[in-house]
Each structure stands twice: as C-alpha cells, then as structure tokens.
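Lab notes, practical 5.
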Amino acid sequence: MATQIRIAQDEAADEVLSNDPFALLVGMLLDQQYPMEHAFRGPWKILDRFGTLAPDAIATAEADAFADLCATPPAIHRYGRSMAGRVQQLATVVRDQYDGRAETIWTDAKDARDLLDRLKALPGFGDQKARIFAALVGKQLDVRPAGWQEAIGPYAEDGSYRSVADVVDPVSLTKVREFKQAAKAAAKAKAATVTKK
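Output from the prediction step:
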C-alpha cells in the first residue's frame, strides 16, 4: 500500500494504516460507537504495545493478556476488552482464510459483489460496514472491482462526505462528522414524527 491514509489524523497512526492492510481492516472494525479518528488509531496502539500486527501472532495471543493490552488507557476503543476479542477473531479469519494477508480480501475479489460477500463474512462487519470499507479501498487505494459503484451505492459517490472512506484531511473529517450528525438528527426527527401519529 503506497497511498498515504490520513484517517487517524495522527502521523504515526496514519503511517501504520498506510503500510499495513490488516491495520486498515482493524481500524474499520473498531469504527463503531467511537469517534472514527480514534478508532483508526487503535491499530497503532496495538502495534506499539504488542510489537506486531501479524494476524497469526494476534490470533494466538493469550486472550486475557491481549484484552488487558487493548483496554489499557488510552484504550483502543470505548469497549477495549470486548473489541480485543473481535480483533482476535478477525485476525484468526485473516490467518486461516487469507493466509495472513488481509489485502487479498479486496485485491483477489472477482467483482464488487464478491468483495462485499468477503467483507460481510468477517467478524464485526455487517452490510453497511462492508460497503463503507469497500468504498474506502476504492476511493483511497483505487481498488474498484467490476460493479463497484453499483454494489456500494451512495458511499461510492465522488465528492461525497458520507463516511470514513471520504476522510483525507482535517477538513474532510469535519465534513463527514457534520454529515453524520445531520443524518442522525434527521432520523431522530423522523422517529419523533412517527411516534406522534
């Protein structure tokens, strides 16, 4: 991966995301119920404390010790211990199904549908997270298998600020955050209207 990722908004953390495909996958896993830039700093924290991001090493790490490492402040996530388990599950799948090479999940996909199926099969990746990650590798790593735009939908739109896939600097991070807040407010208003009826 030669592209410079700038999601974490931290030089050391972004360097890890830029150079290690598994780190990018772990960042996406952690991106829930937690500010996105903090989630994407998680892989750097693991590397700094554990010494490696090799899926095999993470998969075979003693679970309690690894959870302690992930939950130590500053933790990798608001729910550091439970997310440590998810990271180990993800590492196991990457080790067992992709020979420890996370990037083959997207580089070897036959088409966009296959890419989404591969992503949705990962622990902690539902449909929306799979689409956002597919948009991320498409927009920032230029991995766009056949049918990419159609399969991913709005997240693939050029010039949008919908998700982490669109974060390339502090300005775009702010725009994505504003988009998410507006979407949340609209959903809340819609729910309130439905409740009143």
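Observations recorded by the TA: The mean pLDDT is 94. The chain has one domain: 11-157.
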